[in-house]
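ok so i was messing around last nite and threw this chain in just to see what happens. nothing serious, just curious
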Amino acid sequence: MFMDSKFLAELAAEACEEKKALNINLIKIEDVSSLSDWILVTNGLSDVQVRSIINSVEKRLKNDLNIIPLRKEGIQEAKWALLDYGDLIVNVFQPEERNYYNLEDFWSNGETTLY
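result:
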């Protein structure tokens, strides 16, 4: 099955939404960075919700597309958890960390889609 990176990003955003993630932003960075095609930024209100969102994304992408992340970071602490799928980097924060790191501002030269 052919899969483009936008489809991957949208599927991950749906998985976030299923766990009541807040302020889901998809940022297309493929034209401004070689790091990835898309960055997903969202937040949960607690460590439990952050882990739940991350688990939802991982499960959805594994079940629907048979892909697993290349790298995972911060899931135990769940202040800023990250899943790296190559074409997509998923960032799930708690509110304080999201405000502090402000990835949307950092990637403001990308094309942002509010999901």
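not much to say yet. The helical segments are 5-18, 47-65, 95-101, 103-106.
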